[in-house]
Amino acid sequence: MPDLKEIITRGEVSGALRIAAAQVRRNLPQFTYKCQNHSSINNFYPPCENEQWTCGFWPGEIWLAYEYSGDEIFKYAGFIQVESFLKRIENKTAVAHHDMGFLYSPSCVAAYKLTGNEAARRAALLAADQLIARFQPVGEFIQAWGELGAKDNYRYIIDCLMNLPLLFWASEESGDEKYREIALRHADTCLKYSIRPDGSTFHTVFMNPETGAFSRGETCQGYSDDSFWARGQAWAIYGAALCCRYTGDCKYIEIFKRVLSFFKERLPEDFVPYWDMIFTDGSGEPRDSSSAAIVICALLEMEKLSQYDDSTGLNEYASLAKAMLKSLVDNYSVKDPAKSNGLLLHGTYSKKSPYNTCTPEGVDECVSWGDYFYMEALMRLEFDCDWEPCW
Ligand code: GLY
Fold first, then answer.
1. Across the chain, how many H-helices and E-strands are there?
2. Looking at the domain covering 1-19+228-391, what would its CATH class be?
3. Measuring from atom 1 of ligand 1, which residue has the nearest CA?
4. pLDDT tens digits, residue range 39-52?
């Protein structure tokens, strides 16, 4: 891992958060009744309908900006988004997949936690029901995509760890343990089979539909089946941290340490990974700044947990988080709104390689979750331990 030369100061965090919140406000006229596309085009997001898996991140930024500033204009726009998300889940528009947490935690759980809004609560609970309907008892996992039970899609993906907090929340909120039960069963399957012996991860994992046994790991958005897709690694790191948060079970701490250790060893000089971690400095490949933002949030979550228990050996993570965030703020964040309507430059959604199956999109662009997690990281440092995420 590179040396922790410089870490971000309190003043720099506050300054960057002010710039981010101002950018969110500047975007309201274009995006109050629309969502932002998953990624920018030449660093500008076009608007889209509420139909993508990524549409929760823009309202998530609105709620972060409201929490940060207390400005009612954000609350007004946030509630318009909540109405749209309630309609989406009631009408089952583009929800035949597992990304209910990415959609409904930042948009509706955040709204409910901050304002007690009943439509937000109802939408998020309906989304949790939609998610558990994808649980496959044969193999014990939540099927990511496609027709339920289809043999050629009988798989889960590492990203789904981030959908589980919606289920933990739904159990706490409804008093019904079934959501939490399914979250734990999925998490245990995923963390058993997705992590390779060296601490790297498979993006997608196929299970045998007859026996439920592990079948094979395959990439979709990484370079190849045996490479190290940066964002998959980041989802594993934050996913393990959130399992710690919701269960207090030490087994997740060990998993967190393993996946983080692999990530740290592959970080380039400026702490921002290339889109696949087989690439290093000098490769000429694009970065994925969003992976850095996700990992910073995970590190700060674990740092927070360690405040209550210093026997876990976790309280070293804040300095790494602050070094990574310094790099993002100084060299990756948007400072001039004439150059971009996003918050964080140099993300990579899906880069085509000869060995993967993705559609090429959003290469070296802003990506909506990159913006969201960048802002979450800043909020975590601005408000210290008192701050509660939507996850
Ligand atoms: N969940 C898909 C991605 O991270 O691109």
1. 13, 9
2. mainly alpha
3. 159
4. 999 999 999 999 99
